Amino acid sequence: MTRTGSVHSARTAAARTLFAARGPVPPHRTDRPVALVTGASSGIGAATARRFATGGWQLVVSGQDRRRLADTAAGTSAVMLPADLAAPGGPGRLARSALRATGRIDVLVAGAGIGWAGPFVTMPPADIDRVLTVDLNATLHLVREVLPAMVTAGRGRIVLVGSVAGCVGVREEAVYSAAKAGVAAFAEALRQELRGTGVGVTLVVPGPVDTAFFARRGTPYRRSRPRLTTPDRVAAEVWHAVRRGRDDVHVPGWLTLPGRVRGLAPGVYRRLLNRFG
């Protein structure tokens, strides 16, 4: 074995030892691959859950609205686990319940999220904390709880739902942009740590999506560009990304352009952002 191969093997073994240190994985209770989807009460999460069900996967769906969660699970064999991921210990309880119910988690789609729009100086401190807790902190804690079983099994994929707001920064969405930028950085860092473990990380970067997200945040979407896309389109991209092992997905695809312009011509990027951002 070459020195590079030896280093790679040692890194893999160390990663598996680290992530497996929290205890044994329960015996598998289903032969079908299992997808745990959060935020599955509506929007991208619900559409993604339905897409995986169509593909023959066993679902574990989580959200806060029990009625809407039941609508998502209708007609499937999905296990429903209502949860508030922002509550202390919420991510850990959800991960343990999912593993007890199915014995395995092959894919985590972290789709839970909230927004807030308005001038940053008018944003109540409690809302700052809640956006960061739901969109960033809870996501990190849930991934931390799910990863040990995946690494021990030597397979799995973490799908993190970011936003174009985390790539370019959107005026009057400063905290939401900060949270989603954090998710993007976390995805890249975690991907490097998991090399050689058999576990992959996909970052999905959608533009504005036609869901109840804007109604819940209290401010409708008023921009002419980018246009609203559908949650089903995002769900289809998540499905293809998992099947193909893709690291990054933008929906629609042209959303990769702002990042490229930023890297090649920062001045042009800033002028465009000042006009359209």
From TrEMBL:
Any GO CC annotation of this UniProt entry: membrane
Organism: Streptomyces cadmiisoli
UniProt lineage: Bacteria, Bacillati, Actinomycetota, Actinomycetes, Kitasatosporales
Domain of life, per lineage: Bacteria
Family statement drawn from the similarity comment of this UniProt entry: Belongs to the short-chain dehydrogenases/reductases (SDR) family.
Domain Ketoreductase: 33-212
Protein's UniProt keywords contain Ubl conjugation: no
Record SUPFAM superfamilies: NAD(P)-binding Rossmann-fold domains (SSF51735)
SMART domains, sorted: PKS_KR
CDD domains (UniProt xref): SDR_c (cd05233)
Name of the protein this chain belongs to: Short-chain dehydrogenase
Key words of the record: Oxidoreductase
PROSITE patterns in the cross-refs: ADH_SHORT
GO molecular function, one term: oxidoreductase activity
InterPro entries in the record: KR_dom, NAD(P)-bd_dom_sf, Sc_DH/Rdtase_CS, SDR_fam
